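S.,

Sequence below, as promised.
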Amino acid sequence: MDAPRRATLHLGGWHGLSSQEVLVVGETPKRYRIQALEQTRLAGRWRSLAKGQTALVPRHAVTFIDEVAS
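The prediction came back faster than expected:
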C-alpha cells in the first residue's frame, strides 16, 4: 500500500449496523491497519480508538470510499 486511503469501517452489533470513516494506513494478508479520524468504537465489549490511534481490523469490515463512488 503506497499512501493512506480513506475508507468506511462497518460494524454490526445489537443496535444494528454502524459506520465510521477511517484512514487505511497498511495491510496484512487478512487485515487492514486503520487509523481513527475521530473517536471510533470497534467490535468487542470495550474496544475503542481515540483520534490518531491505529488497529488491525478484518478486510471484510472495510469499504474504500473511492470504490463506492465509481
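The chain has one domain: 5-69.

Coffee later?
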